[in-house]
Request: fold
Amino acid sequence: MEEFDWVGSEEHFVDRPDIWKMQKMAIGRFGGNSAAGQTKNEDACLAWANPEEDWELAMIMDAHDTAESAEVVMEQFLAHQEEIRSFLSMDVSFEFFQSLEALLLRIFRQKDFLATCREIQGETACLITIRKGKHLYWFSVGDCLLYLFHPELAEMGQYQLNQRHFYEWIGRNNSFAQPVPSFSSGLRELRQGRNQILLATDGLTECPGEPYKEPVNIYDQFNGINEEDGIRNLLETVQQQGVRDSVTLVTWTVDVAEKPLYASNQQTVRKEDSWGVE
Reply:
């Protein structure tokens, strides 16, 4: 199993794009441009990959005011890592994903965690994405972004899976401290062939000149190249455009052999014609 975690208060990467390559996943970090006024990085990310059990998990955070909220969320998540990993070893079913969401809610609604959050300064957005088998699940609080790139989806103009939500956070002011928490989640069947998953903080889309406001422009940056070079393209562009906000990216690809769902009157794509299937 591979694992990686980082919080921007540990190393800020201001003026310095960085790419960390795991065997399965690639992570991009850029703390913004000091010439634009940036002095710190309040993003964070975590990545786990277990090829033997056929799953990956990624989490990104975009905090404000201080990085304390990202730090305490990371600590809470890592405190429950054995329980989460044990759960992810189970067989896939609809009930599996229902129980997974219940587990995440329980972790973030624990009384001691909420008490800790009340003592810190600032809040964070948080996006957790889990791929198990041919399905992709996400759990989102706030305005981080999740993309799924595949030629069949691109033909339909679909690139982005989640919607940015504002006035949702984890931290001093906390969505999970409310009687009814505000969050979003989703479950998606991957397509046959090569699926690319990308998580991003909003510094990518709120860059001066907005080169990546439209998801198709992000998709094009990965066209025909590997994940590492695609991340490099994105980070170099936002650096050249003078972005102030931090940008954190996590991406990986999943090859699916099984035929997915099509409409009953739709001609299916042959396996040998599907992009990325050998």
Q: What stands out?
A: The mean pLDDT is 95.
